[in-house]
Amino acid sequence: MARNKKTKAKLPLVYRPVGFALGWVGGTLAGMAFRRTWKAIRHEDDAPDALDRDRGWGEVLLAAAIQGALFAVARSAADRTGAKAIERSTGVWPAVGKGGRD
């Protein structure tokens, strides 16, 4: 029992590099998905950002909402994939702090 408790205590530290790598890959894929999505919606290569003077509020907020949604999905998919991999290899779910994140 003590060994299992010790394993659970150390797992978040072991999971951090896995989570970081998966988060980086997920962010990269989300950025690519956002650029393709924006091009499909607006037929433009560059999406507006908040400081783009020539774009209206609607366009800027639409781009931000799409980008935010895609990044949230990518991050959740990366976190879930990493947690499942850790659980398969160790038998322990890598809960990190309250709510799953430190």
Describe this structure in words.
- The chain is mainly α and 102 residues long.
- The chain has a domain at 18-88.
- The chain has two helices and no strands.
- It has helices at residues 2-42, 57-90.
- Helix 1 (2-42) runs antiparallel to helix 2.
- The longest helix is centred in the N-terminal third of the chain and has 41 residues, at 2-42.
- It is elongated, with a radius of gyration of 18 Å.
- It comes from Streptomyces lannensis.
- InterPro entries: DUF4235.
- This is DUF4235 domain-containing protein.
- Keywords: Membrane, Transmembrane, Transmembrane helix.
- The chain crosses the membrane at residues 13-34.
Q: Gist?
A:
The chain crosses the membrane at residues 13-34. The protein is mainly alpha-helical.
Mean pLDDT: 84
User: Strand percentage, roughly?
Assistant: under 5%
Radius of gyration: 18 Å
SSE order, as H and E? HH
List keywords for this structure.
single chain, 102 residues, mainly alpha, 0% strand
